């Protein structure tokens, strides 16, 4: 999906990791190679834009999250995103 806006990305190396960061949004990801850091940033940006699928109950359990206690609200309802 194209927004028609050219992203501004920083790409830095720290120890054995490459860190890719979208300046406008602050979304950051990493990878063992430059290419994997950029690919991971693409995936993180897709999630930031609301693309993708919600995790299944099975996936939540694999991450140690109890689906029956997992709640979330809109970003505009949370003080964290101010």
UniProtKB/TrEMBL annotation:
A Pfam family reported for this protein in Swiss-Prot or TrEMBL: DUF7387
Region: Disordered, residue numbers: 28-82
SUPFAM superfamilies registered for this protein in UniProt: TTHA1013/TTHA0281-like
Polar residues: compositionally biased ranges: 28-38
Domain of life: Archaea
Name of the protein in question: Type II toxin-antitoxin system HicB family antitoxin
UniProt organism field: Haloarcula saliterrae
């Amino acid at each position: 999906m194209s927004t028609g806006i050219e992203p501004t990305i920083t790409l830095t190396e720290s120890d054995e990791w490459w860190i890719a960061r979208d300046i406008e949004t602050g979304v950051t990801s990493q990878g063992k190679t430059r290419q994997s850091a950029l690919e991971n940033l693409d995936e993180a940006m897709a999630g930031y834009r609301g693309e993708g699928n919600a995790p299944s109950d099975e996936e939540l359990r694999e991450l140690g999250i109890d689906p029956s206690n997992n709640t979330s609200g809109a970003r505009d309802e949370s003080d964290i995103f101010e």
